[in-house]
Write a structure and sequence with these properties.
heterotrimer, A alpha/beta (318), B alpha+beta (63), C alpha/beta (139), A: 318 residues, Rossmann fold, six-stranded parallel beta sheet, two-stranded antiparallel sheet, C: 139 residues, alpha/beta, four-stranded parallel beta sheet, 4 helices, globular, metal ion binding (chain B), nickel (chain B), metal-binding (chain B)
């Protein structure tokens, strides 16, 4: 029997998910021997986009895409990947929900370009030149760039078979996902590959797991306002932690290091709109309504990883 | 004039593209390297609580 | 045909829904653009309900609950106001007009207040115009 073919495409991401695959360490040898990597751009393999386009439709067994869809090139390759791959997996929170890079939806392309290329303290651009989708250099060299668009999660562009959350997915979770993938023990199409538990359910700080009741937060604190207790619940102490609504495939690593969860794992099963459910969960954990006004930057907190997939998906007017 | 496009540049993180122009004899006349990716961290970080910035900008490049 | 607003009113069974009932019994009129959805308690209203209504084309969403101390489930309305305030802060930061989403405490005996609140809400939404978020257009 021939080996299953694997393709991996990094769209609008940072490569952290690629590193998460490398982080499975010794198991990487088994995975690399068990599959035939036909495309892994741009980080690992040398195959180019035209090589992928030349492959027959449906010839690749599993395709992984990390990163959100941010420009016309991402969109094009996502469609190509969909037609070439039998199973397509959105890998990492950018592909599943938009990710941190999805925060670009807070601004228009013009505002983003203006800040990055013109209006920054350290930028010297007197002619206010901005990237163009096509330009001709010295009157004869024609060059093109993809056009920018609002960030979208993968499933708003093509049909996605499975989702794996995390920024990046924890390597132990990647191991489990690859084991499930290679042994064919996958959940029904359209579902998340997850153990289905929230961060709170695997968190050592959770008082409920110790048989104690969970108390309301009576203050709102930032991580710069002192340090949390050794083993108390961060949310009870006022450090707004999104653990209640986030998938705990990471093993609750951030709260263990005194850092409140920010929701990179993606929504727990049954939740469609992560940001709104997080707003709901955090608001109901507060002791009184005055505390709501003390939360710094609610959009940057609740929409950190999920703006392109959570209502209203982008800022409507600036 | 012949145009050769190498897209994407591989074995690195970040999307890049190389375009090479050849003259009539087939020699390289000019070559361009373009960075295809644009993110916009400069703008969307504005308004974020300062203590959250380090863990946010770590996603500029994850490699 | 001229644009007519479509307003979704999510009313708690014990107070605001009874208030709406009383408004009818007392023959107070309020705009026909109002569509009432009954829920057990304002504490049942998830931010997702409001978002779903707006995404599907409602031009405004109004939540009605019991006055503080009157909640049939003791603290449902306290929870509702916390969620509502936080949602409104986030939506306002994201450019949604804050007046599109409103919350008011209307008891079962306040039929007149219900009719007046609906009339005022309808007028406000007419002023704001059609909902730009219809369909949840992302691009």
């Amino acid at each position: 029997m021939s080996k299953p073919k694997l393709a991996y495409y990094l769209a609008g991401g940072c490569g952290g998910c690629d590193i998460a695959v490398v982080d499975i360490s010794e198991m990487l040898v088994d995975v690399a021997l068990a599959v035939d990597i036909v495309f892994w751009a741009p980080t690992v393999a040398d195959a180019k986009y035209k090589d992928l386009e030349a492959m027959p439709d449906g010839s690749i067994d599993v395709g992984l895409i990390s990163g959100n869809i941010r420009n016309s090139e991402h969109e094009h390759i996502a469609h190509v990947m969909r037609s070439k791959c039998k199973v397509l997996i959105a890998f990492g929170i950018c592909a599943t929900n938009g990710g941190i890079k999805g925060l670009v939806n807070l601004h228009t392309t013009e505002q983003l370009l203006d800040k990055a290329y013109v209006n920054t303290f350290s930028t010297d651009n007197p002619n206010k030149e901005l990237p163009q989708t096509s330009c001709v250099v010295d009157g004869k060299y024609e060059l093109t760039l993809p056009s920018l668009m609002y960030a979208r999660p993968l499933d708003q562009v093509v049909k996605v078979d499975y989702y794996i959350g995390g920024c990046p997915p924890h390597y132990e979770h990647v191991k489990k996902a690859f084991t499930a993938l290679l042994s064919g023990q996958l959940p029904p199409p359209g579902s998340w590959i997850t153990m289905g538990k929230a961060v709170c359910e695997v968190c050592d700080r959770n008082p409920v797991l110790k048989g104690k009741p969970k108390k309301f937060a009576t203050t709102v604190k930032r991580t710069i306002d002192g340090a949390p207790s050794e083993d108390g619940c961060l949310l009870e102490e006022g450090y707004l932690c999104l653990g209640p609504v986030t998938q705990g495939d990471c093993g609750s690593k951030c709260p263990a290091a005194n850092i409140p969860c920010r929701g990179c794992g993606g929504p727990i099963p049954g939740v469609k709109d992560f940001s709104l459910r997080a707003i709901s969960a955090i608001a109901s954990m507060l002791d009184n309504e005055e505390l709501v006004d003390q939360i710094p930057g609610p959009v940057h907190l609740f929409y950190r990883y999920t703006l392109p997939s959570s209502f209203p998906y982008k800022r409507l007017k600036s | 004039m012949k145009k050769i496009e190498i897209n994407p540049m591989t074995r690195l993180e970040g999307h890049g593209k190389i375009t090479i122009f050849l003259d009539e004899q087939g020699n390289v006349e000019n070559a361009f390297m373009q960075v295809v990716e644009f993110m916009g961290y400069e703008k969307f970080l504005i308004g974020m609580p300062i203590e959250e910035v380090p863990r946010t900008v770590s996603t500029i490049c994850g490699v | 045909m001229a644009w007519e607003p479509r307003l979704v009113v999510i009313a708690c069974h014990w107070c605001t829904y009874a208030g709406a009932d009383l408004a009818g019994s007392l023959r107070y009129s309020y705009p026909p653009t109002v569509h009432i959805v009954r829920v057990p308690c304002s504490g049942r209203v998830e931010p997702e309900f409001i978002a779903e209504a707006l995404r599907r084309g409602a031009d405004g969403v109004f939540i009605g609950g019991c006055h503080f101390g009157d909640c049939h489930y003791k603290e449902g309305n306290y929870k509702a106001i916390r969620r509502f305030k936080l949602l409104k802060r986030a939506l306002t930061d994201l450019g949604v007009d804050p007046d599109r989403v409103q919350l008011e405490w209307i008891s079962g005996s306040e039929g007149k207040k219900f009719a007046e609140a609906m009339t005022a809400f309808d007028a406000k939404i007419r002023e704001l115009g059609p909902n730009p978020m219809k369909g949840g257009a992302n691009v």
